[in-house]
Amino acid sequence: MNTPDHRPTFSIVIGVHDQAEEIEQNLPSLLTQQFEGGYEVIVVDESSTDETVDVLKRLKSNHPHLYTTFLPKYHFQNNRRRLAFTLGVKAAKYQWVIFIDISTPPPSEGWLQELAENLSPSTELLLGYIHRKSGEMRLQAFGSIDEARSIVNKAERSRANGHGGHWLRYLRGKYDFLVVRTRQGHDALRLFDRNVRGLRLLEQRVGIFFHNLYH
Fold it and tell me: Model confidence over 101-114: pLDDT tens digits?
């Protein structure tokens, strides 16, 4: 458990592309967390062509802990989002980095506080699952990145939807956000590019289902 003098601090990293409406709707809930420790929000604009820049400028004027940068078009490769997250990790100044999608708002204004209370000295990586209707959150802690490898690098993790049911996303390993120590942020991102196919993918799906079923 963390004491007041050793509160975790967070850098929330988000990659966006032509998502001005979602930014306007969901980013304020990340910027107004009731959290006793320090935190910042880093938004990496992946060369949007809509009103994203204007929306971010407006929000920055009222929230000094919001930082923005951009990913030039010539940097686009197979995994644009991973590149955006990589820039975010490089800019992060706090102990923990959180990777989350702008389409996934936090379930409450006490989200960061709840995360902080569930981090222990032995935790290296935390996966979070949010039930869409109730806002209830489930957390899954790992003592190393390698322990979470099969969930993070499972090929279907890039699919935004398709796992309904109360905790079916959890059983299938489709997390909503990832928390990792900043010093290991780049190591976690390397798992994003693993291209799991065929029998190996099936083995991971089955393994994840039964692992999460009994934990």
Answer: 999 899 999 999 99
